[in-house]
Specification:
- The chain is an alpha/beta fold.
- The protein has two domains: about 1-125, no CATH class; about 130-370, Purple Acid Phosphatase, chain A, domain 2 (4-Layer Sandwich), CATH 3.60.21.
- It has eleven helices and twelve strands.
- The strands form two sheets. It has a six-stranded mixed beta sheet with strand order 1-12-2-3-4-5, covered by helices on one side. Strands 6-7-8-9-11-10 form a six-stranded mixed beta sheet.
- Strand 6 and strand 7 form a beta hairpin.
- The chain is elongated and about 80 Å long.
- It starts with a helix and ends in a 5-residue tail after the last strand.
């Protein structure tokens, strides 16, 4: 089903784009075959590693496949637009029309160029995005406190060791008080990613580096990965919390497991457990990879939830559909019953579909501010 779903755009392009072209039959057949081969990128990934989430090809090949697959998908969308536009014009004019070859060439060129831009935007080391969060009852000692959120790094053959090293260097240069990583750090087993994740050992902040799992950790032996992250100096929040202290004031940092954990036979997210024993009347910052449980977190007194998972939707207007699968949350700030939710666009994304158009990646520096007291 997975491979059939991802083959559908290719079949549409062959039938509605390639076949009507004024090319000799051998050229159309060759083009159709080439597109079919390119569309099976995820099947090749499964052959290479046993998982569609871990393509084990040279980086240049992964880049090429993402560009080709992205171009097929974008061309399918553009062809649908052409077909609908032609159909509407036919209904208005009450006569048969055909799409000129020039329009098809223009659509094909646009798809190739947009896919190249999208892959480039996905692969870059993200720029810094600065945001401020006003929190009620935030102790004065934490006014101006800075937190760096990294999420969805998907370290892999595409987002490799040099890329991770540059992310670490930029992160450390920001000089924040605290670093949090909200899941999906990797794509692949530890045996294949030891070198790729090695730069993360050098992440540092005065109040530490905290990590929670995302759904992709559960695809590749979550416990092994989380123990490895702990051995690299990260502090694991596994349905648990930590208390950050500053000049006698306190802030609670809680973290939960991912919603996909029960499918791997492991405990799912349990915020009540995570907050058990937390000091009363301290603001709570929650790390939860997926944003879907935000309303439950709001009911339990969380002041700020930091999530990722959606990659911001990757391509506009695809974000509208991804939001529907995530309780309406896809990118940026949301007020959830008085709780603030920030859904991060991600530091990187899954190497099986590495395109970004209109949804930039980000290194997110969060500055906490005291909310103004009501008059």
């Amino acid at each position: 089903m997975f491979h059939l779903m991802f083959s559908s755009p290719c079949l549409y392009v062959i039938v509605r784009y390639i076949w009507p072209m004024p090319w000799p039959l051998p050229a159309r057949l060759a083009s159709a075959l080439l597109l079919l081969l390119a569309s099976q990128y995820h099947l090749y990934s499964r052959f290479s590693s046993g998982s569609v989430f871990s393509p084990e090809f040279p980086r240049a090949v992964v880049v090429l496949f993402n560009w080709a697959f992205g171009a097929i998908l974008l061309l399918a969308v553009l062809q649908i637009v052409l077909d609908l536009g032609t159909l509407l014009t036919m209904l208005i004019r009450q006569r048969w029309l055909t799409i000129p070859a020039a329009a098809r060439y223009a659509a094909g060129t646009a798809a190739l160029v947009l896919a190249a831009i999208g892959v480039h935007q996905a692969m870059r080391v993200p720029p810094v995005k600065d945001i401020e969060v006003a929190i009620k009852n935030l102790p004065a000692q934490f006014d101006g406190y800075t937190v760096l959120q990294l999420t969805d790094m998907h370290i892999s053959r595409l987002f490799d060791e040099p890329w991770a090293r540059e992310v670490v260097n930029r992160s450390n240069a920001l000089g924040v008080n605290l670093i949090v990583i909200t899941g999906d750090l990797i794509d692949g087993p530890l045996s294949a990613r030891t070198k790729g994740v090695a730069p993360l050992r050098d992440l540092h902040a005065p109040d530490g580096v905290y990590v929670i799992p995302g759904n992709h950790e559960y695809f590749f032996d979550n416990e092994t990965w989380m123990q490895h992250f702990a051995s690299m100096g990260m502090k694991r929040l596994n349905n648990s919390h930590a208390v950050i202290e500053r000049d006698g004031a306190q802030l609670t940092l809680a973290g939960v497991t991912d919603l996909s954990a029960p499918r791997a036979g492991l405990p799912g997210p349990d915020l009540s457990k995570a907050l058990s024993g937390a000091p009363a009347n301290t603001p709570i910052i929650l790390l939860d990879h997926q944003p879907r449980n935000a309303r439950q977190a709001a009911r339990q007194g969380v002041a700020l939830q930091l999530s990722g998972h959606t990659h911001g939707g990757m391509i506009r207007p695809l974000d509208l559909f991804i939001a529907r699968a995530n309780e309406g949350f896809v990118s940026g700030f949301y007020d959830v019953d008085g709780m603030q939710l920030y859904v991060n666009n991600g530091t990187a994304l899954w190497p099986g579909f590495a395109l970004r158009l209109g949804v930039p990646s980000e290194l997110t520096r969060i500055t906490l501010k005291r909310a103004a007291e009501p008059d």
